[in-house]
Amino acid sequence: MLCKTIRAIVSLLIFILWCINTTVAAQPIKIGEINPLTGRLAKQGLEIHQGVAVAVTEVNEGGGLQGRQVELISRDDQSQADVAISRAEELCAWREVLGLTGGYVDSLVGPISEVAKKYEIPYVASASLQKELTAAENPYFFRVARLQGFIQPICDILSEILRPKRLAILYAATPGSTEFAEDLKNCLQVRGLMPLITEKFRPGTPDFTPLIGKLASLNTDVIVSGGFFADHLLLLRQLKENRVLPKAYIGPFGIAYESFIREMGGNGEYLYSTCAWNPGITQPGTEKVSETFVKRFRRMFRREPNTTNMHGYTSTRALLAAMENVLRQNKPLTGPNIRQALAELDLVLPMERVAFDKHGDPLHYQHLVVQIQNGRLQVVYPPDRATAAPIYPMPKWGERK
User: Fold this and answer.
1) Cβ distance 202 to 173 under 8 Å?
2) Distance separating alpha carbons of residues 327 and 166, to the nearest angstrom
3) What pLDDT shows up at residue 10?
4) Distance between CA atoms of 22 and 197, rounded to whole angstroms?
């Protein structure tokens, strides 16, 4: 009788454990994203969000993570740092997400990373460049972009191919643009190329005429501008109005977008920019994966994806791949375990080979130099990835088709 009772108790315990494991296995895996979906950065935040959504949909349509679906909890930081902190607190403390992704500009990403550290929740940021964020000790912060990925190819093409005699570096009064100008100048000086002028301007400047007068008086032959979408539009239009045309104009931020090319029309021809990914521009060997991403994105959002979308996708796929690696090792999905899996990650995606250094910076993030030719982005540097030769110097404003 006692043996039967013991067997019954053991069987009951086994059944209870099976029920618990089955319930846990069936539970969705919750991740959070925080992006500026309203406010002054809403356009970029929405683009990051769309890339995040594609990554989650891709994993779920493929059967989830070891059979468990991923639940994405999205929050809007309204383009404000204090709101970003509040949203991060909500997701980490109340919604108990297992990881964070998304994020646009360091003034918003930085505060989120501190909350992530507090709760030991891994955070893989989509768009972050400021060097001090990874200089601080935060083992739970990772990002898929870095400033050096912009600087190196521009420094290379300037020193190896264009070789300007009178180079101007312009930069917006923001931390990221300021760091870009300083690091580019340092890189060029090592190569023996000294910029003629380095000039700061306020983002959203309503009139570049005084600056253009200075550039004209110095007979500047190449302009590198660390401004953004609207800054480029105004500066280029006023350059044309004042009949000032450099041999090359390079804008790493905001030019390599279909929307910019459409807005500028023929005046956008021959401009240079940088690009980490674009439809048709992808890491060698990832052509099929890239095409699949484009098709899924079109299906979900009825338009062509851009490089900002791909940054959101890449950060989220990195987070989900780390989670899957934890599950494959039969370990619990805890913050420390996911963090360790991210530190060990080595994953090839269309934008980059994703692996992180000890500070959470990407080891292989590198842009290509592109030029607008016949309304399309053509890779002109490095030579082994080039799809067209650079057109230099640019034709004069009145000689364009």
Assistant:
1) yes
2) 56
3) 46
4) 66
